Amino acid sequence: MGHKRMPGLTRRGDIWHINKKINGQRIYESTGTSELREAEKYLISRLETIRKAVVYGIRPKRTFRDAVVKFVKENAHKASLYDDICAIKKLDVVIGQLNLEAVHMGSLQAYILARRQQGVKTRTINYGLQLVRHILNLAASEWLDEHGLTWLATAPKIKLLVEMDKRKPYPLSWEEQDRLFKELPPHLLNMALFAVNTGCRDMEICKLRWNWEVPVLGLGYSVFLIPSEHVKNREERLVVLNDAARAVIEKVRGQHPEFVFTYNGKPVGRMLRTAWKKARIRAELSQVRVHDLKHTFGRRLRAAGVSFEDRQDLLGHKSGRITTHYSAAELSNLLEAASKACTGRDGPVLTLLRRTDVEGSRKSRVIDFSLSKKAL
What we know:
Order of helices and strands: EEEHHHHHHHHEEEHEEHHHHEE
CATH architecture of the largest domain: Orthogonal Bundle
Strand order of the largest sheet: 1-2-3
CATH superfamily of the largest domain: Intergrase catalytic core
Low-confidence stretches: 353-376
Radius of gyration: 28 Å
Strand content: 5-15%
Mean pLDDT: 84
Number of helices: 13
Number of strands: 10
Number of domains: 3
Shape: elongated
């Protein structure tokens, strides 16, 4: 007599699937096998898991990788999702297959050690740890399964590392800017010039679209309004164009129907890639990051006497004001302030004091922000 198939299993093609109503809830899922006995074992295991959850409140085992998949799906709108995924790939090597209950500071030590050995800064390691902490907190507080149970009973405490190697901002002098920009390929040069004259972030520039350009009626120029979902602080971002930034915009206008900045007809994923790294090495400025262009713009504004509130607006920093509701006079004031970051190269020299790493003695680095005496 042949083997009698368990109820709840149906064959589709070569694979057995579960189609069964359990505790008032119908389950549709693949067993992943073409062997009937293996499919029956899988069904029995699923039934036992469901019974434990319903009767005893025992949570099904889920891996950190399962949690990551859910996190990525729920955060497709997140401006920094690309950075999150890059960090998650490094974490996955160490803790991806672990059950959520097994992810804690102890199991994360291998990840921390591996990243240390790769010469990664503590800030970058902490970025990964923050992601783990956030995902575990979601699993313990917000994510409910079909039985009304959270994915995790309680979230462990994930402590961040002390950042003793935190890198300080490096605003560029005009001479350093010239050296670096001379080494950049044309598409990156346009983006860098735009960054140092607007204070926009890497991702804001890479995703900049023509339909975000807004003409300012009666004033004869346009601005860009970056939607909040593409801005790190989730506030709509006003981008005022001084003469240098406007010249870049006019230079690239018409090259692509959607994106402002492209390379070989395609949008640029990010500025900080091989071409940027090679250029800064040739310019003997290996410490300069793309984000330092934003620092340079901010430092030049401050040195020119631009008010704190105007600097906040021009740099896209979070504030309590409704930063995209401006009168014509206010926009003109912001344009005048932004123009101070690119006008003239003759004037007093500013000096930043830095300590040497070896002897701890104080040394200075000359930064020429090209201020006029009137601005001081």
